[in-house]
Every structure is written in structure tokens, then in C-alpha cells.
Amino acid sequence: MAGFFCDLHIHSVLSPCASLDMSPKNIVKKAKEAGLHVIAITDHNMAENSIYVHRIGEASGIKVLFGMELQTQEEVHMLSIFDDFNIAMEFQEKVYSLIPPIKNDENYFGDQIVVDENDEILRFEERLLLNSSQISIEEAVYWVKSHGGLAIPSHVDSDTFSIISQLGFIPEHLPFDALEVKRNENIPNILPFTIKSNIPFVTFSDAHYLKDIGKKRTLIEMDRPTCKDMEKALRLMRDKK
Fold first, then answer.
1. Which residues of 19-33 are buried (b: 16+ CB within 10 A; e: fewer)?
2. So where are the chain's domains?
3. Claim: this prediction has a pTM higher than 0.85
4. CB of 30 closer than 8 Å to CB of 209
5. How many Cβ atoms are within 10 Å of 164's Cβ, its own excluded?
6. Residue 96, SS3?
């Protein structure tokens, strides 16, 4: 078993709120410089750019998982992370079909760009990705878990788009793998919501700019940097709480 520094919340140029510097090449280069071992690309409601980051990561010794930051119908943000790109794209297709067909205003929200491993633009996504998909948090969690993925509510200590800000509680019956906090010092304020479920906490960068990649990370002890082994490691963290 080894320790892997993980940053599983990174946006690329496919997220309209991310810097145009967040191309696959630049993300992997910065992750390498930051000493990360495992990253996940988690664009808003889409997973498409993750394959190009993955290809560069393989050549650079960085493990890249395929993910998205889903926005549910309750306006809860949740990291949905997979080992298999095809499964991630299946989830993207499901989520995309449930997003309102509202055109993106790139001048207001920013461009949404699919960029390959050579930093060449493949297409611009025209549907605004910053809307809620009409999938419930419950349906989303069970879909992700039944397909071998990780389900981690994002920035639960945030005043907006967090499971606590939107629902006022953390449903005990939902099989979340962890809860992401923006700041570890906020964990005491979150603990009352997790006493019964005993979910472990993680912290990631939520990077929209290159300078932020790896600034926040979690050291996870596991045999291999896969979703299955990460799930086991997080379960051990939970049992030790």
C-alpha cells in the first residue's frame, strides 16, 4: 500500500467559469509540478475533456480519472468520478439530456471548449452547462455507485450549491464516499451533520486556474489509484473516525 496525493476536483476549459489556460497539457504539467499523483477532471455536468487529460497523464506519470461536477435538480454539486471513460460518457449523456436547452452566452459566462491532447479545439459546447440537470441527488448517487464510481458532494461548507446549503442536512441513507470541504478548519461546523453517517472528509482544489491545482489535496493510502481502491481507503478512513 502506498500514499497518493489526490486532487479530484479540477475544471478544464470545458467549464465556462474556468480559465482558458486550463487545457489538458497545462493541467497535467501543473499537476506534475505540484507533486500530485492522482487527479480527476470534473467539469460542470460534462466529462468529455477528461479523456484528453488522461492521455497526457499516462505519458507523464499522472493518473487521471474521468469525472464531472454534477449539478442536481436540488442545485447540489456532487463530484462523480469513474475509472472508465465510457461509463463517464454514459453518465454525461444521461445528465446532458436533462439540462435545459439554454444556449450559452460566452460573453457573459465564458467559453465551453472541448480541447484535445494537442491543445487543438475540437468544438464549442453551445448548451449552457451551469444549469441544474433534472436528476435528483438520490438518483445520481445510486447511478454513480452502481457503475463503480465515487460520489462525493462538493464543498459542503459552502453557502451555495452544497448539499447542506440546499437540503439543510446530509441524507443518512445515501452511500456517499466522502464529503469535500473547502477548508479543513470548517470541519467542526460540519460534524453535527455527519455523526450518524460517519462520512470521511476530503479536500481538493476546485481549481479553475492553473495556480490553484494541488493547493488543496488529500493523501489517500491505497494499493492502486483506482476508484475501487479509493472507495476501500475512504471506507477505512470512515471506520477510524
1. beebbbbbbbbbbbe
2. 2-150+203-240
3. yes
4. no
5. 19
6. helix
Fold of 2-150+203-240: TIM Barrel (3.20.20)
The length of the chain, given as a count of residues? 241
Asked if residue 33 lies in contact with residue 94, where contact means CB atoms within 8 angstroms, the answer is no
* Residue 29 backbone dihedrals phi, psi, to 5 degrees: -60, -45
First to last CA, the chain: 20
- Residue with the larger pLDDT of the pair 190 and 85: 85
Residue with cell 453518465: 91
Helices (H), 34-84: 50-60
What distance in Å separates the CA atoms of residue 213 and residue 34, rounded to the nearest whole number?
A: 7
**Dist. CA 33–CA 28, nearest whole Å:** 9
Cell numbers 442536481: residue:
72
5, amino acid identity: F
User: Residue 71 in 3-state DSSP?
Assistant: strand
pLDDT (tens digit per residue) in 115-156? 999 999 999 999 999 999 999 999 999 999 999 999 999 999
Q: How far apart (Å, rounded) are the C-alpha atoms in residues 85 and 144?
A: 13
